[in-house]
Structure formats: C-alpha cells, structure tokens
C-alpha cells in the first residue's frame, strides 16, 4: 500500500492505436500513445491499481500506479570503441596530440 501524499509514478494510455491520427507514420500508428507522469498520490493505493495524482503544475491525472518515490534511470548506452577513436582524433586535431 502506498500512502496518500507520496511522490509516485503512474502510467496512462492516452490514445489506443485505432484512435491515432491518420497522418502519422504507419509504425507509430501501430502502438498506443502512452504517458508516464509523476505527482503526489491523492489517496492510499496499491501498486498496479488505478490511482489519481496531483502533478507539480497542479494538474490532476489518473493512471496505473507503477512506482513509489521514483528515481531517474538513464544512461548514455553501451560503450562504443569508435567514439574513443574519434575522441583521440579530435584531440590530435585541436591540441596537436598534447594531453
């Protein structure tokens, strides 16, 4: 159970594929338009259940409760040796090989 007032992350399907605009690319039209939103939970709710939140901008949204106190998870992907070689080439061009 997640308590009212907790900072949470919810998920919502904004548009189903059949509701998407006709002029969008075919591969985009095949998938739903989804939204993940963070805000304060408006009443005690279980994870994976429908929840209402109040966002930082004062907007009320509903969706499936995914996470309590969500953290940021992002990175720059896998190591690419090509970028290391490019970095060496740029250093050579800009600084004449000095470190």
From TrEMBL:
It holds the Pfam family OrtA. It comes from the Bacteria. This is Uncharacterized protein.
């Amino acid at each position: 159970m997640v308590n009212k007032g907790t900072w949470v992350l919810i998920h919502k399907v904004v548009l189903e594929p059949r509701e998407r605009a006709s002029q969008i690319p075919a591969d985009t039209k095949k998938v739903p338009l989804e939204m993940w939103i963070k805000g304060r939970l408006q009443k005690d709710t279980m994870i994976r259940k429908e929840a209402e939140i109040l966002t930082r901008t004062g907007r009320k949204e509903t969706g499936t409760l995914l996470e309590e106190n969500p953290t940021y998870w992002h990175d720059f992907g896998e190591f690419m040796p090509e970028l290391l070689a490019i970095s060496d080439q740029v250093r050579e061009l800009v600084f004449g090989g000095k470190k």
